[in-house]
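[audit] Reproducing an earlier prediction to check determinism. Same input, same settings, fresh worker. If the tokens differ from the archived copy the diff job will pick it up downstream; this log only records the rerun itself.
[audit] input (527 residues):
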Amino acid sequence: MNHSDTTFEDAELTGSEFRSFRDLIYQRTSITLADNKKHLLEARLRKRIRHLNLPTYAAYFKFLERSDPRGEELQQMINRVTTNKTNFFREDHHFAYLADVVFPKLIQQASRGERPERLRIWSAACSTGEEPYSLAMTVLETFSALPGWDIRILASDIDTDVIAAAQSAIYHADKADDVPQDLLQKYFLKGSGQSTGKIMLRPEVTELVTFRQINFTDPEWSIRTVFDVIFCRNVMIYFDDVTQDRLTTRFVDFLDPQGYLFIGHSESLSRIPQTYTRVDKTVYQLTETARRQKAPQRPSAPSPLPARLPAAPFLPQSGDGAGNSDLNRGASGSNALFPAPAAVQSTSRNVRRQSIIVGEVAASQEPTEISTTLGSCIATCLYDEQSGIGGMNHFALPSGNSNSRNSASFGIHAMELLINRIMTLGGDRRHLKAKVFGGANVCDLGTGQSVGLKNAAFVKGFLQTEGIPIEAEYLGGTCGIQVQFNTATGKARVRMLDQQAAAVADQAINTIPEPTPASTESDITLF
């Protein structure tokens, strides 16, 4: 493709063309462009027009209308018109309020049994990631000494380019000018060699954050939880009053009744006093009236599990000494088990086979049979029936001290990694269904507490919190199992193992590697 300027020459954006683009941008993003933004829009679109080798702005608009059926170029245009000014700990009084007021209050409530040890935060216009990572550092400063808390931060933006930049967690060193020195030394790695002049967030920070594209104008958001804290700062200034009020009113459905909404220093919720009340500078909570109208949505902490969770019984062992069964949802809505026909035991030619072990996650948009062997560990199988995309994880413990190499050994990370991998392949979080396996009582924590029971309680609580229905389960017991899961059909098969095989599978729990310091020969070293 020729990217020469000769075809574009000195084309200018006419007034009527500007109005057409402005209407399209408003329709797709709710961003309002004033008349004085004409030259700014002209400059930002110029690179895309040259890239496509088009002669005029009018030709580019026609391209968007007629030659972009999947909306890929539309997304590129949106990426060009969004504003991404941000920095670490911007409006630092917000982070101080979290550390001094919000977090201590949540911890006290949990200690009294008034709420689970669970924290959800949404950075609703995350840009290149400085805000959610600042939130993560603030969280770590308070909660790192409180093991057992289930903490996750959702970071979303409409701009796919800034999301990609945020996920890399790499920044130019001058971006950290506003980071306190103690946090800089604790949570950042400094580049050397080819990475001189750059910094990178440490894994304990990045593992708390999940990135996702969300367009505020979409009729549905791919979110199935409520948040204790929502940050939506310095984005509403680009919306008109109607859009601002619609957005903040919509946040009510995603905010815990006792939750907090943080907005930018030049933004206000004064037009909807019946919904929000100010509790600090640009910090709001729901009014009593709004709380009463909002049905409680926070899932309660999962109740203790019995020694054996309800599950359909396995078939009697066959002559070869192992029991095989299909564990799938029948037409009536109940779990149905059928003997595995001979044809199923040999995967068809167009279905790939893949096996995983503890600490691994696999997902595919092509028909794939994923298998693993379990004792007290858990394998979660997720699938989107509509897209035919699915996957499996295999984790050893609900949470723990992890680094980037072993984070998927812990359920709190393995679940989000699997969900994100399925979504990256084109799956829809709202359509996900689950089948869960493992959690056998073959290993304890040295305190008499079963690892299997703890794992099973975690995965059921996680899926309940995220609103992902469990279609079938085989949890608990004293025998290990081998699981085979078809990502395209969602069907699963299970084979019972003897205790020796289950014990071998559980050896991974004792061999999860401890975090190691970064190599000084790497391009990334410690400060």
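[audit] rerun output stored. Observation attached for the diff report: The longest strand covers residues 255-263.
[audit] end
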